[in-house]
Amino acid sequence: MTEKILVIPCSGIGKPFGTIGRDATFRVVDELRPGKAETNCLSLLVMGDEEATRQVKNSRCIAVDGCPLECAGKNIEIAGGNVAAHIRVMDLLRENRGLKPREATFLDEDGEKLSGLLAERIAAKVDELLEEQR
Amino acid sequence: MNIKPKVGVISCSGECCSLGTLSRVATRMILEGVRPGTVTLCLPLFLAGDSGEREFAQRFPTIPVDGCHKQCAKKAIEKYSGPTAVDVDVEVLLGEWGAEPPASRRVLGEDDIKLAERVAMEIAKRIDWVQSEQDA
Prior knowledge:
The structure holds two protein chains of two kinds. By secondary structure, chain A is of the alpha/beta class. Chain A has helices spanning 16-32, 42-46, 50-57, 71-78, 89-95, 109-133; strands at residues 5-9, 37-38, 60-65, 82-88. Chain A has a single domain (5-123), classed as Rossmann fold (3-Layer(aba) Sandwich). Chain A is built from six helices and four strands. In chain A, helix 1 crosses helix 6. The radius of gyration of chain A is 14 Å and the shape is globular. Chain B is built from six helices and four strands. In chain B, strand 1, helix 1 and strand 2 (39-41) form a beta-alpha-beta unit.
């Protein structure tokens, strides 16, 4: 197993929830936990790219899904990866009913808030998984 | 009344680099105003085996919008639904225009948004061409 935690969002394009998961993932890998977490293209993985498949098989993965179809989690498992944690945007939305994201291209204020909250949750999970590895 | 034939657009998920973000934003711009009658398909759902998404791409012309030369969206359509008549490779377009990819994959600046609008116009040209071929 590699040291870094692999965070893979679904990047769903039809509604704001996929954008929130994607945005939060970038916050984690580029800003909150650089060097501790990384991401890769979900589509590359599912298309059977050798390097992406090797990476997912050798990493502990966090799947970030925007809708109940759970494409990220399912596709990681199909590729033979280990979903160590599954984070769902809809759970966060239920916990923050006052926030109503509407924009999917560029997040609006509520979408940005949810992305920030989600990023904190993912970052905490990254820390937890790294701690378990020690 | 002239009813335009349906056309689908699939953007790569492109989490690896900012070109994926550009593809995705340009695709969203198509839906939100450039060609609002267009249907977007979710690539992860398409790849996960959703029969509705794959059936759509079998029945209607669907244009892949790929951020990089690996062309996951194009390969996915051709693998599961059939050949594509046209495609958009954002990496190639930026090369032709001498444009730099966005510095961030999360936040696009003003110039990046203009670049996304330019990519959206390229997608629109292909949509128009596909629809004109269907009309003919």
